[in-house]
Design a protein that fits this description.
Blueprint lengths: L1 H27 L6 H5 L2 E3 L7 E3 L10 H13 L7 E7 L1 H15 L24 E5 L4 E7 L9 H14 L7 E5 L2 H9 L4 H22 L4 E4 L17 H16 L7 E2 L1 H9 L11 H16 L24
Parallel strand pairs: 3-5, 3-6, 6-7, 7-8
Antiparallel strand pairs: 1-2, 4-5
Length: 330
């Protein structure tokens, strides 16, 4: 009977659909790489209780301490048995603050005296201008900080630390999963102290970045590489007269234009970090990250690392933009 055949066809169709198509749909969907998150956004207050960072009309997904640990454990479980997840921060004190915020995200312990007045800097405990490696065993992550105050042509602190990463990569040892790097304010300060014009120092800064870029591109073959730009300053609190927002912007433009000149570079320019610092006014000293800026910055990094893996948050979504607002996004 035709009716039976219709039912049969529909049943077989449904079985084929649920057995073969549905399980694959998730992998066929484009993975949200969180690119939008690193590019732009604004602080918004969708409700009285909550303020959130909104890239392109959606809410930044917030990772709890448990979410973050679970994500890193999952990353570790995908590696060879004795390999940890490696997260590397290379740069100046602002980058060290991002390292501190990442550690806090996983441990709950704050050690950043620059964004928390309750903490005193103890030189013997806080290695301000030195390399440091911290292994967080319960999350299986090694967090490294390489002090690199200024850029160089490959032979200085920044260049040498990148070389080290490349050597490790070639040996398949401690291959970094994420590298966050940045510096600039020491260049601006040195330039002023030597009575040179910032315009001249800026040209050198850009040239040095371009000479380091091949190393960064090499690292970016296996590592997510993020350039953290200069953030907003509050000049009225700073004694360095050259620490102005127009200088910060000028140095950022030098990096942006250098990266834009290499269309195939996978290095991510973290534009939303600068945007975030303009939206917030929480720096304690006018130069460094304040607590809220660091918190959102770390959440952006967690999204960048974790969203592509699977869902770890209570909302169960692995999108950077889980709350889709009408009319904004598909
Ligand atoms: C975090 O995870 C641990 C162990 O998996 C659990 O005991 C604890 O209750 C969790 N904490 C929160 C706030 O969910
Ligand atoms: C500093 O300590 C005081 C008193 O214990 C506490 O109320 C405050 O929340 C702490 N501030 C920070 C930023 O942790
Ligand atoms: C790199 O910089 C160092 C120190 O500033 C300098 O001595 C060296 O000549 C430079 N090398 C190149 C290839 O520019
Ligand atoms: C920079 O200029 C100031 C004032 O013109 C001068 O006192 C100082 O010695 C100069 N410093 C250097 C390093 O040339
Ligand atoms: C800069 O700091 C001063 C002094 O603490 C404060 O009054 C002012 O609001 C800040 N300005 C901006 C633009 O953040």
């Amino acid at each position: 009977m035709p009716w039976d055949r219709t039912v049969l066809t529909l049943t077989i169709g449904a079985i084929v659909y649920y057995v073969c198509v549905v399980p694959r749909m998730r992998t066929l969907l484009p993975i949200d790489t969180c690119e939008v998150l690193m590019k732009d956004g604004a602080l918004a207050q969708p409700s009285i209780e909550a303020t959130v960072w909104q890239p392109d009309g959606c809410d930044l997904q917030l990772y709890s301490q448990n979410d973050s640990k679970n994500c890193l454990r999952k990353m570790k479980s995908r590696k060879n048995r004795h390999q940890n997840v490696n997260v590397v921060f290379t740069g100046d004190s602002r980058i060290r603050q991002l390292r501190d915020a990442f550690l806090r995200q996983l441990s709950g312990i704050d050690r950043d005296w620059l964004a928390n007045r309750n903490i005193t800097c103890v030189p013997a405990k806080h290695y301000k201008h030195a390399d440091e490696e911290i292994l967080i065993k319960d999350s299986g992550v090694r967090v490294s900080f390489n002090w690199a105050g200024v850029l160089d042509n490959g032979t200085g602190e920044t260049g040498r630390s990148l070389e080290r990463m490349i050597r490790n990569m070639r040996r398949n040892d401690r291959v970094a999963d994420l590298l966050v790097l940045g510096n600039g304010v020491w260049t601006i300060r040195d330039c002023a102290r030597k009575n040179r014009s910032q315009a001249d120092c800026l040209i050198e800064y850009r040239t040095m970045f371009l000479s380091l870029l091949p190393k960064l591109n090499t690292i970016a073959r296996r590592t997510t590489v993020v350039w953290a730009p200069q953030i907003r300053v509050n000049q009225s609190r700073l004694s360095d007269r050259e620490f102005t927002n127009s200088n910060m912007r000028m140095y950022n433009e030098a990096i942006e234009s250098a990266l834009a000149s290499q269309a195939d570079s996978k290095v991510i320019y973290w534009n939303s970090l600068e945007r975030l610092s303009y939206e917030l006014d929480d720096s304690l000293d006018g130069l460094h990250f304040g607590p809220t800026a660091k918190y959102y910055a770390t959440q952006m990094l967690m999204n960048l690392l974790c969203n592509r893996l699977a869902s770890f948050t209570e909302s169960g979504s692995n999108s950077c933009c889980p709350m889709i607002r009408a009319g904004k996004r598909q």
